[in-house]
Structures are given as C-alpha cells and as structure tokens.
Amino acid sequence: MSSFPSCLEIHPGIVLKGQLSMVKDIVLTGRFEGDLRTEGQLTVSAGGTAIGTIEAGALVLEPGGMVEARVEIKSPGTSQPVPVSRRKGQPSNWPMSLKKLKDMALGQP
User: Fold this and answer.
1) CA separation (Å) from 107 to 21, 71, 85, 100, 104?
2) Is 35 in contact with 53 (CB distance < 8 Å)?
3) What is the CA radius of gyration of the chain?
4) Is the separation of the CB atoms in 28 and 34 below 8 Å?
5) pTM of the model
6) Contacts of 103 (CB under 8 A, 6+ apart)
7) What's the pLDDT tens digit per position in 3-52?
8) pLDDT given for residue 101 in this prediction
9) What are phi and psi of 42, to 5 degrees?
10) 25: part of which helix (H) or strand (E)?
C-alpha cells in the first residue's frame, strides 16, 4: 500500500506560478497562474483560481471557483481533445429560454 496522496492539493493562501505537469488529480483551492497539465481531473473548488492554460483529463468547476484560461480536455488514454462544442447544423439541446442568451454570447442573430 502506497503512502503517497491520491491527488495534489493546492490550498488557500498558496500561489503557484509557472508550469505544472501531473498524472494525478489536482484540487485547487489556492491560486495557479501558468500552464497546468494533468492526465487526471482538475477540480477548481470555492476560492480556487486558475489563470493561463489548462490541459486535463476532466475539469470540475465548483461554485465559487474561477477559471480564466484556455482549456483543453483530453480523452483518457489519448492525446485527442474531447469535442465540447456542437457543429453547425446540429440541433441544440438548450432550452428556448437560454437559447437566445447563448446565441447572443456566440454573436449569432
């Protein structure tokens, strides 16, 4: 049995700047500025801030967390990004009350 923690935790009051590359999950309640890569899941919890670029296996943004980054989510076991946007011409699953807001945000009439 390993005594190593299952994830990296960046606690409140800690500010990391630079490049971080991990295989494990990361839980961020502090602040990270730079290039962050993990094959695992990045969780930005309440009070956590990530600024820069993020490449992760999964991203969880909890209420009170902040992300100002270019984000790329990778499929497990591959270097291919997971598609997160729909292609033009595909039907939207947005409720009508939110569709207008989404279209405005995307600059669509």
Assistant:
1) 35, 21, 15, 10, 5
2) yes
3) 16
4) no
5) 0.67
6) 109
7) 667 889 999 999 999 999 999 999 999 999 999 999 999 999 999 999 99
8) 67
9) -100, 125
10) strand 25-28
